[in-house]
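INFO batch 0412 | record 1 of 1 | parsing
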Amino acid sequence: MRIFIFIFFISTNLYASFDMNESMIKTYTHIINLELNDAKKILNNERRENPNNGIIILNQNYLDFVNVIVSDDFTYYKKLLKEKSRIIKSLKEIDNTSPYYLFVQSEIHLQFAFMQLKFNNYTLAIFDFIQAYKLLQENKKNHPEFILNNKGLGLINILLGVIPEKYKWILKLTRFEGDVEKGMQQLDSLINNPQTYIYRTELLFLISTLNLTILDNIDLCRKYLKEIGSDYETNYLLNFIAARIYYKLGENDNCINVLENRPNTKGKISFPYLDYLLAKSKLYKLEYGNAKTHFKYYLKESKSINFIKSTYQNLACISYLQEDDQQTKFYLNQVLLLGSLNTEEDKKANRDAERQIFSHPVLLEARLLYDGGYYKKALDRIEKSKPSNFSNTHDTVEYWYRKARILQALKESENLIKLCFQKSYNFGKDFKTSYFAPMSALQLALLYEENGDLKNATLYYQKCLKIKDFDYQRDIHYKANLGLKRVSY
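INFO prediction complete | emitting tokens
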């Protein structure tokens, strides 16, 4: 009996391998299309017919990862976290001569890293990225011809290249440095490579997202929109990122078109966040009724605790603009009672609800039109009022900031733009919580830098960094610090 068990143990390990067969390719395709039930069926069938296939472990983890990312399910995430060590250990018992041996382990670490980021566990995420990097570097030495190495290496190079200052001590311990430009090149080279065609959707989603959140390159936005083409009509992830790109480009009507032509929901897991985005796009057009419908649908269908506060704040904003005081108070109260403080949007919504203050209706509508890219309409709206019409400092500071941003978008006189930003900064530099003054300082610094006036650029980057405790501080200070580094060279 003992001999039988020993032989069985040896044989299962000998024949365990990584087989990216047709079934596993189909499973991956279903996962990336969010057709998770179909993916589960094929995985279960593969477990019966080919139980020693290591790709099953990868695809199962990928399925769980996608579920967590789309649903924001914290309980599911914690459950997976407890299984992480077991998953990695099981992979180490499979054919270590295969190029997939280290690659699959690195993919598992990367998936966990993104889940860690999702729930603000940044330190753990960085350690997972580093572990994945080590595995891929070793795999590149062992299997230099294995092109999938660049998929993970590109991603890691970008993310470790923009790691926040307070976490750089971790990189110093390991002597790792990211390279954003190299990472983008690595990912870009794979998009239309026949050897990585099955990963094209994932690669397009990743590189487009990274460009939006890190590089902020408009030319690349248009390039990847062209690559996506009409595929946003068949894939939720591409629908999401195409909508985000159009919003970034100030093309709100195209954003609405994408979101209204999303894939059929049949067989796919729910993705109500797309309705949240559609609601915001409708709000930018001042279509209050349509916006309200989609915000309420998000509240009804979402299982996430994120963007709940923001949704109620937007509903309060609509009620305020419709002069419905009772509903406005109700929604502001819901902001304070429900949801989480995980996202910047929710944090700002909560702070605004605590203050119980809205901008002047003219300024609020101008801001909404600006956010949608309707710049001429925004300028017409804001010019209906003058600074002397406002009874509080907040509205005066916002007036000058908002006007500067609109004039910037319309490519008006730079001197006039600087004058408006300067007035916003002067009025608001001592006004706590508002981001208009520090953002005005940042914009002035960028304008001076662009014109080669490094002395004034440095001065205004420093002015921006001196202001503390305001909305969006992390992102604004991050950009100011980057600017200071540029002008210091």
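INFO post-check: The first helix runs from residue 2 to 15.
INFO record closed
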